[in-house]
Amino acid sequence: MVIKPRHLRWLGLSALTLCVVMHVSAVSGSHAAETGPRVLDLTYPFDETTQVWPSNPPFHRDSTQRGGTTTEAWYATGQVALSEHAGTHMDAPIHFAQGQAGIDGIPVEQLMGPAVVIDVRAAAADDRDYRLSLADIHRWEAAHGTIPTGAIVMMLTGWGAYWNDRQRYFGSATPEIPTTLHFPGFSKEVAEFLVRERHISGIGIDTASIDYGPSQDFVVHRIVNAAGLYGLENVAGLAEVPASGARLVALPMKIAGGTGAPVRIIAILPSRDGK
What we know:
Layout: H1 15-27, H2 30-35, E1 38-41, E2 60-67, E3 75-81, E4 89-91, E5 112-119, H3 121-126, E6 131-132, H4 134-144, E7 152-156, H5 166-170, E8 185-186, H6 188-198, E9 202-205, H7 219-226, E10 230-233, E11 247-252, E12 260-269
Parallel strand pairs: 5-7, 6-8, 7-9, 9-10
Antiparallel strand pairs: 1-12, 2-3, 4-10, 4-12, 5-11, 11-12
Helix pairs in contact: 6-7
């Protein structure tokens, strides 16, 4: 049996069910591999080079046991220490909005939805402090239709090309000083529009913050979080996701009361046969 993407209109499905469906489709034969849905991982691995916000401690992992034991031929374990806002992560509503949900309180249904990818790479190349504008939104909608309710709106800036260069990624020779940062982000007007007029589930970006680098008031965070929505930051591989037609699943570590958490983001792309 080949499970087609049209069978995945599953806003009410659990993430576990979704993963099972995708696995069945992937292994059900060569025809499914050619025509079934494709899945992309939009998550950077965590290691000692992972980008973190300037004021946060770096990621660290210790391998506490590796090798044989008296009862087992092989055994490996370790422990990690990291900020809630390191690497590819999700900002919970409580991050910038007192009284809103922590990362564990975000409804599961809100963690998946239609992907809206707005490509501003050309504008960001000309202006490293570029902010997504209402004109960008209107151009996307003219080409693809109204942004659907429950969408996850992603801003593609091309900043992922700088992931391994901390100074270029943060746009500063002194990235440890937050007032010197330069990179693109969402604008206040777009944040308000998406929250009030399009009723989205969340927003995301391939830079260090949904607010642009020079921001000192983090107004986009405040607007989005106050509406009970989340932000996805340091998203990897966004250029591989089409402007419309894909679906995103973003599952954060369930930290009780967490202001954010590492998140595994996958994009489910339309099948090659368009079904």
